[in-house]
Amino acid sequence: MNEPIKLKAKDYKSSVKPIWCPGCGHFSVLNALTKAFAGLGIDKDDTVLVSGIGCSSRLPAYVDSYGFHGVHGRGLAIAQGLKVARPDLTVIAMGGDGDGFSIGGNHFLHACRRNVNMTYIAMDNEVYGMTKGQASPTTPADWDHSKLTPHGPGVRPFKPAALALASGAPWIARGYSGNPNQMARLIAAAIEHPGFSFVHVLSQCITFCPEQTDWKAVVHEREEEALVDADEAAQLFLHEDGFQTGVLYNAQRATWPPSVPEPQSTDITRGFSV
Amino acid sequence: MKQTELSIAITGAGGAGVISVGELLLQAWAREGGRGLLRKAFGPQIRGGESAALLKLTESERYTAASAYQVLLAFDWNNYTRFGDEIKLAPGVIVFCEDAGDVPESVLAAEPTLVRLPMKQLAEAAHDDGRVNMLALGLLGQLMGLGEGSLVELALQKLAHKPAAYQEAAEACIAAGCAQQLDCSVQVPAPGVPGGWYISGNQAAGLGALEAGIRFVAAYPITPASDVLEWMAGGLEQLGGNLVQAEDELAAINMTIGAAFGGVPSFTATSGPGLALMTESIGLAVASETPITVLNVMRGGPSTGIPTKSEQSDLNIALHGLHGDAPHLVLAPLDIADCVYTSAWAVQLAQHLQTAAIVLSDQFIGQSTAVITEPVRCAPLAPPVSCEGGDNDYLRYRLTDSGVSTMAVPGDPGLRFTADGLEHNEQGTPSARDDDHQQQLAKRARKLNAHDYGDDWARIDGEGSLGLVCFGSASAAVAEAAELLAEQGVACRTVSLRLLAPLQHGSLTAALADCERVLVVEQNHGGQLYRYLRGQMDFTQPLHSYARPGPVPLSGAAIVAALAEVSPA
């Protein structure tokens, strides 16, 4: 083997130009991801980014690795199938809040529960950007900027971290698009975690939710170690303001699939003989 | 020459062991060189509903469902009558039943030879834990001329994991059944060469897939496809593959696509409602040119329909269910043995052409078990050519004459690309341009149309001025109809389609060239195959339809009767 050439963050970017609006938080996620790759010395050929549909789900094409841009809500399913079939690969699924918590919500619950060794980055801007600004499952109940829900969605927003914990995710972190250096550290730690690692990213949508520029004033970094106790994490995720960043929960749990005993025979037709 | 057939129906409550009796009888019969089919019929209940083991002992391996039964063993009358007229009795049927209670009028109408026995009492007298089903096994085994030793050996194999008392009880009850004085007899078909396989269509479809290289399955349980998955779970473990029980069909199909993108041949199995949920992502497999195989074991529809009974009514959704112009493969196995062949062929075609293949099996061939000669295997297609290109110039979706471009998989050095369900250019970069769209649409259509499918597209038999065309499991009933028509002096050509999409227009036209009239036979209400053929081709001869929905299986006699109505000779 040749000595691997140390790549820089920009070396992990592809030549495809992002379709995102200027000021979009997802640029910051792209930078953080490539920075994390550079830090870890990730092999481009052995890495796959998988996504669903939405603004954030465009990200795989902007990275010079293998990628799969699937259909709305199903990125996690594609990614788990890939990782189970090809455990040698580094698999990272990603998408937005509508993709992951609404149309793909069931896959999110079961991916947390199944605990396949992969990473999921949810870029949460509390809005459907690609379809021009409708309420998502994380939109505040009184957000009245959409013609579709002129009085606000009127529904309590999801708490993604609480959902992840309740569904069995062993590793939960939160990042913020205004702090790409911290986010790069979180993504690197997520990739290194042996199991399903969930990175919830507050990624602002400057176009449809300009009020999200105020997030910088309320985001606060967790100073303590990540919680390892699920009860304490439940208390935190149910009662926090949702703006705490850092690794919030870090537990160890057996990954799926488990190893099975060596088969005694590979003759699969034997049982059919009369 | 008319062959001897013997049909035996065993009915009772679900959980009473009716199916076990049928399985053990057929296994013992197979050991003697006998050929036969075991069809299973259930009510919708999980336990305690009606259940029937429907045996047909034959001399050939052309397996249709029996149209009438010469022997009936009813554990009780309540469960028998729940089947209504689904289990028709032949005149003079031999009926085994309890000696107490009234025999239903519908049974008496067949002028049966009644063998009234205190079956429950006899079973309990044989052993404290004695059960009627093992007594029934002995009774019917004796009638079929099977040895007690063979029946006991097979029963004990089946009960190997049960407590010793169960095994003793089974042995005692089988012995009591075999020793019971019977004043009736049946003519059994002549046995063939001992050996062969005892296999269900669902197992056969799973086997074909694994033999063709499938090493990843993701699926969601659904009747009547779950037993494909149950068998494959064990097979994959033997071969070092993986099976994921997904949270729903949406996950199942996408996990299948993900694994296939990773270069691991991948497969899922489902039935109508599940196929409906999968269609969006089957389109993704088509657009991203990711090879997957979807086995759809058809059941009565629409909606939840009749989950436990057979129908060929998912042809429309399999052919036309994808949005956009999404050319893909649709195949249908013609019988239980052919499930091995067609399933393997579908996997190979999907891999070779980098597209989605939908395989239309059904509950009849899927959940029936038959004794068959070890099936013919599908010859492997040429291995894919290796990828060309290097860093930044690999064209995953390169426009080629054949329409097939090379498929790199993650881990291949320097061939990185992003697969996409968005329209894309040759490199895979999303594109909404007119030229990219035209070119990629044409490429995906071309690769299916340009492929040489050889002679496997249909099974063609006979010569005659009447053409009978069908697909999938209707094949056996059509062959039976052709035989009945031959007795009437009507010569037939039968064409059983194994490849439904892309339709082999030229070959089908040629196969029917000498036919002055054609009857299209299928087990559904809407005439889905008939309408598909009408829409796709110009027929020079009159084309007629015989479309009969489930749950009653298609039969040769019904096809002949229908022909007399729609196209009198």
Topology of helices and strands:
The complex is a heterodimer of chains A (274) and B (569).
Chain A: H1 25-40, E1 47-51, E2 66-69, H2 75-85, E3 90-96, H3 97-103, H4 105-114, E4 119-124, E5 127-128, E6 134-135, H5 160-167, E7 171-176, H6 180-192, E8 197-202, H7 215-218, E9 220-221, H8 230-239, E10 244-250
Chain B: E1 6-13, H1 18-31, E2 35-42, E3 50-58, E4 69-74, H2 77-81, E5 89-98, H3 105-108, E6 113-117, H4 119-126, H5 132-144, H6 148-158, H7 164-179, E7 197-200, H8 201-211, E8 216-219, H9 226-239, E9 242-245, H10 249-261, E10 266-270, H11 272-288, E11 292-298, H12 315-320, E12 329-331, H13 336-353, E13 356-362, H14 363-367, E14 369-372, E15 418-420, H15 434-450, E16 458-461, E17 466-471, H16 474-487, E18 492-497, E19 499-501, H17 505-511, E20 517-522, H18 528-536, E21 543-547, H19 556-566
Parallel strand pairs in B: 1-4, 4-5, 5-6, 8-9, 8-10, 10-11, 11-13, 12-13, 17-18, 17-20, 20-21
Antiparallel strand pairs in B: 1-3, 2-3, 2-14, 7-14, 12-19, 16-18
Helix pairs in contact in B: 1-5, 1-6, 4-5, 4-7, 5-7, 6-7, 8-9, 8-13, 10-11, 16-19
